[in-house]
Amino acid sequence: MSAHHHHVDPDAGDARVFWAVFVNLALTVAQIVGGLLSGSLALIADAIHNLSDAISLIIAFIARKIARTPANETMPFGYGRAEIVAALVNYTTLIVIGMYLVYEAIFRFFDPQAIDGWVVVIIAGFALMVDAVTALLTYTLSKQSMNMRAAFLHNVADALGSIGVIIAGIAILIYDWRLVDPLVTLLIAGYILWQSFSEIGAVIHILMLGSPPELDTLKLIDKIKSIEGVADMHHVHLWQMQEHTNAFDAHLVIAEGHWTNADAIKHQAKKLIDQEFAISHSTFEIECSNHACNAPTVIGH
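Structure (tokenized):
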């Protein structure tokens, strides 16, 4: 059950993120100015979300740098989880933004504003081009890291928002239908919230030391217990140290008459979970069957 990941050179990846930040900050300024000049809430909403894109990319960029710091005496597992924390921050920010946009859109339904459709369409068209550039810069990175995936989803939501704003601008130009502006804002907010809530669970799962979702813990336990010389196993912990790094520890009870082969049995167990479950970081505490823990729990302590 090993997984293969295509890696981008870290420095090349950093350069991509840097340019994505630059173009998004430039776009944010243009959108805010355009939104204020045109009176379009949807355009300002898109600008706010685009600013969050830039911030999310900055957070992702910093987290990528921190994650490469080697382990030390104060952080024995290293700094890899910096990217997971960054993803949590970005998804939480998206949820707050989505809820704020819902509030503002509902308010606009009761108080429609005059909107300059041409300014909206031109600025949103420019925004869509920038969103496409950002997507190209971050797409490959998003496939290997939930940190970059969170930043990428910021961008995808923004691209859809730009399309929605263009549609709203055209509807205002042709039909003078001002309610389409808050309606599009609601659709943008709905997509942001849907994507964020669907992705944030996996991030929280890792931070809560949950087991890898693709692995069956009970099946893994049964596999190890089937090794000759293993009487039992308990106090099992299977968790994700980082997004692509799983860890395992347990008490391994050696059957009576097999104690002289205890090290070989332990080695066989470590080899099994590495080859069949792609877990390279494992720790086993060996116990004699006559002196094993009293009434232990199978999983956890």
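Helices lie at 10-38, 41-67, 82-110, 117-142, 146-175, 180-207, 217-225, 262-277. The two ends are 27 Å apart (CA to CA).
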